[in-house]
């Protein structure tokens, strides 16, 4: 067994080596040898050295890092202690390679759950702080990407909470936010039923503000392209004529460079001092608002419940009646009209997504896929486009 390399992990183009012990003038040659032995057996692009169990690094250890930097220009060092990070920083290494400190560990035992979604749970740590804890082994690069998107959205005027660090919650990643005296939008709907219309108006205002803000980030995913790829999931599932109709309908959706949140149900929104704030930005893209109304509103509030009655009680924690009232209220208020064709078009886009989502997350659920097909196919002959006629507004 290697003395200084305790474990390894290959994911896509990233190869992580978990290091341990001291890297000093005596051990440096052996550390270098172990690393070189490990990397020669793998094909990768980015070498990551996890220093979570490294207790000391001397100048001899830094020379090993320089050699590795020449061989692997994208090398990075993660999970360093504060003292080791200071060594890298004082010697200028943080200017030539990515070096990051170990994440703070946060316990959520006994904390109140104030929000919950498919990918994460939100806990209140104390009066001033909440933490979004990811359910799965989310890569830190994906978390940092989400935080960068949130910052861009915030700068452009979209109400979103700004985090101040990435943390460890058990063996998973989390993000801490400053959210003083905040509560979830779900709780607001439940606690203040007499103010339903007022709350709904703020909800609609948040969505319209988001969907009418043009993004600066040219690398953001295009929602239309994402849906065309989701449409490909229907190939082989239905007759060729129906598959072609699905793809043709998707191509009629207008192109836009405005933000789409994409998962905008009330458990992803917090309320602070009367203002609604997004706390989940990992599904951010750009495109026409029909994508918001389908995946962000119709999908969570209506599509799952239509397929599996009782889902809203289990996932959203509210009755199907309240979910319907919110969903149809948002759609009608957003569009400023009440037309069956609008609901049908939004439903078509949602069901296209729903089949793809099921194949991605529950591939064994063949019965659901069949139910989705039976709901979508009868709607296809009635429409030649999915354009809701929405223009960019000043909000």
What is CATH's topology name of the largest domain? Aminoglycoside 3'-phosphotransferase, Chain: A, domain 2
- Largest sheet features: 6 strands, mixed
Q: What strand order characterises the main sheet?
A: 6-10-11-9-8-7
Tell me the series of helices and strands, N- to C-terminal.
Answer: EEHEHEHEEEEEHEEEHHHHEEEEHHHHH
Number of separate structural domains:
3
Helix content: 40-55%
- Measured between the Cα atoms of the first and last residue, the distance is 62 Å
How many β-strand stretches? 16
Key terms for this structure?
395 residues; alpha/beta; Phosphorylase Kinase, domain 1; five-stranded mixed beta sheet; 16 strands
Q: Layout of helices and strands, plus pairs?
A:
Layout (H helix, E strand, L loop, with lengths): L4 E7 L2 E10 L4 H12 L6 E12 L1 H13 L4 E5 L1 H9 L7 E4 L2 E2 L6 E5 L3 E5 L4 E6 L5 H16 L7 E7 L2 E7 L4 E2 H7 L4 H16 L11 H9 L8 H12 L7 E2 L8 E4 L2 E4 L6 E2 L3 H18 L3 H6 L3 H16 L4 H22 L4 H11 L19
Parallel strand pairs: 2-3, 3-4, 4-5, 6-10
Antiparallel strand pairs: 1-2, 7-8, 8-9, 9-11, 10-11, 12-14, 13-16, 14-15
Helix pairs in contact: 6-11, 7-8, 9-11, 9-12, 12-13
């Amino acid at each position: 067994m290697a003395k200084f390399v305790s474990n390894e992990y290959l994911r896509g183009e990233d190869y992580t080596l978990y290091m341990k012990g001291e890297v000093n003038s005596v051990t440096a040659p052996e550390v270098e040898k172990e690393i070189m032995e490990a990397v020669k057996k793998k094909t990768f692009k980015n070498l990551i050295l996890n220093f979570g169990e490294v207790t000391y690094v001397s100048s001899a250890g830094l020379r090993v890092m320089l050699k590795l930097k020449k061989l692997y220009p994208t090398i990075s060092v993660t999970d360093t202690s504060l003292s080791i990070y200071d060594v890298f920083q004082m010697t200028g290494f943080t200017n030539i390679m990515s070096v990051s400190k170990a994440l703070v560990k946060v316990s959520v035992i006994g904390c109140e759950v104030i929000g919950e979604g498919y990918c994460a749970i939100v806990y209140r740590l104390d009066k001033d702080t909440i933490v979004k804890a990811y359910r799965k082994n989310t890569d830190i690069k994906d978390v940092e990407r989400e935080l960068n998107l949130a910052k861009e959205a915030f700068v452009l005027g979209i109400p979103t909470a700004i985090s101040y660090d990435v943390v460890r919650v058990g063996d998973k990643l989390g993000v801490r936010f400053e959210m003083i005296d905040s509560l979830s939008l779900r709780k607001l709907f439940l606690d203040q039923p007499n103010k339903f219309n007022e709350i709904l108006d703020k909800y609609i205002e948040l969505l319209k503000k988001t969907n009418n803000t043009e993004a600066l980030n040219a690398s953001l995913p295009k929602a239309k392209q994402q849906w065309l790829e989701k449409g490909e999931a229907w190939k082989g599932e239905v007759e060729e004529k129906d598959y072609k109709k699905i793809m043709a309908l998707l191509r009629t959706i207008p192109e836009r460079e405005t933000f789409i949140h994409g998962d905008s149900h009330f458990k992803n929104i917090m309320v602070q001092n009367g203002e609604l704030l997004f706390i989940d930005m990992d599904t951010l893209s750009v495109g026409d608002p029909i994508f918001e109304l389908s995946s962000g509103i119709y999908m969570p509030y209506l599509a799952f419940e239509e397929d599996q009655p009782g889902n809203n009680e289990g996932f959203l924690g509210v009755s199907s009646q309240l979910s319907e009232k919110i969903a149809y209220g948002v759609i009608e208020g957003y569009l400023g009209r009440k037309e069956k064709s609008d609901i049908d078009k939004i439903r078509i886009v949602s069901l296209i997504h729903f089949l793809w989502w099921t194949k991605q997350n529950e591939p064994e659920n063949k019965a659901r896929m069949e139910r989705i097909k039976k709901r979508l196919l009868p709607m296809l002959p009635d429409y030649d486009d999915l354009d809701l006629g929405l223009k960019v507004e000043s909000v």
